[in-house]
Amino acid sequence: MVSISVGALFPRATTQPVESGNPDLNDLKALRELKKLIGIQILRGLAALMVVTQHVVMDFPPPNGGYLADAVSQFMKWGAGVDIFFVISGFIMVYSSRSLFAAPDGYKTFLRRRIARIVPLYWLATTAFLVLLLVMPSAINSGMPTLPHLVSSYLFWPISGADGTLQPVYKLGWTLNYEFFFYVLLALFMFLPLRKAVLAVSTTLIGIVALDSAMALPNPLLSWGQPLVLEFGAGMIIGLAKIERISLSRRWRVICFCAGLSLLYLNAAIPAPAFGFMALGLYGIPAFLLVISVSLSDEPHKLEVATPVSKSIGRVIAENLGAVGFLLGDASYSIYLLHPFILRGMHIVFGKFAILQAQDTASNIAFASYWFLSLVISSLIGIISYRWLEAPVTRFLVGFGESPQKLAAV
User: Fold this and answer.
1) Torsion of CA 286, 292, 293, 298, to 10 degrees
2) In a 10 Å sphere around its CB, with 0-12 CB exposed, 13-18 middle and 19+ buried, how is residue 268 labelled?
């Protein structure tokens, strides 16, 4: 059974070179090394499940769900999984694409890869949502979109919908509007060397946010000027530190990890809007600390074969849980995009049997069942989607412009 060392999350720091004189070889190494960032992979999976939990809690407004739903809701700001995603995105874009900076047509390669990775599944999810909206309008809490709103949703361009919010037709895609803004901005500065590009992108993000804070900017700058875009910049800085072989000892990374989790727990009691500088401080800083804790080590990560005979039962369990976390990291994008369909189906089934309105002890059992099934089914569907849809389609589309050697590492 393939599993992952329990030390994978916080490996001991070493200093090993990761670049060669060949840009293509550097790029190939970066992609392969990215696959071995076990801590980042596990954190991506946990971030996806945090978002699932946030939406589960929203399906059980008080007093539904009993004290258990209330306790879970107040334990942590589960929506901070999005902030973790944004910091990880900044890290990955810099770390995995480092040889594309100041390279001929580097920006084209970068954008081709991002489009192949993000667009197909999002377009499929948006189209599926529209089909459900036509076939089962009573099951979808949304009105029919206008043509401009529909087109802008497919193009990742933020405009106001019928309800006045800056969200696409498939509302979960609001995060992808920010992601694509970041991708295009990064591509614009890829003619520069890596350090200068990171500085230019970070400065631009700060400038847009500052302008949006100082004056009422029109769309889409109103959307792109939200402080949470600075989380991409924070991730880029971590990625640059990783490339520069800056590392922290295991002790300091454990401290960062514990501090990040503690802040998410403590900040849950502080009322804050979803956007703005307060939200950035409450959720962006913990996300930054968590990503630092699992990324700033140069020790090579290795997959190990778990042998119950030679290892304690506890270690074997921990290793295999790590392997599950790694798999969830691979499937995190599919889990994120597809879980609303799972929750909507479960909401219909549970509602048909009046389980959502259960009272007293039954309400706690109802919430626990709903939460558990949501996490399990969303994870399984996400893994299936990644293995048989997302990954094959991405490789097929990227393959139009990539060498076989690079394609094998994507």
Assistant:
1) 170
2) middle
* DSSP string for 21-85: S-HHHHHHHHHHHHHT-HHHHHHHHHHHHHHHHHHHHHTS-TTTTHHHHHHHHHH--GGGHHHHH
What phi and psi values does residue 3 have, to the nearest 5 degrees? -145, 180
CA distance 96 to 29: 9
Q: Is the pLDDT of residue 8 over 60?
A: no
For residue 331, give both structure tokens: 């499937």
Comparison of pLDDT for 74 and 375, the residue scoring more:
375
Phi, psi (degrees; rounded to nearest 5) at 304:
-120, 160
User: What does 200-223 look like in DSSP terms, one character per residue?
Assistant: HHHHHHHHHHHHHHHS-PPTTHHH
Beta strands in 177-257 (DSSP E): none
d(CA 223, CA 181): 10
48/58 Cα distance (integer angstroms)? 16
What share of the chain has pLDDT > 90, as a percent? Answer: 52
pTM (2 d.p.): 0.85
Do 407 and 399 contact (CB within 8 A), yes or no?
yes
Give CA–CA dist 23/33, Å, rounded: 15
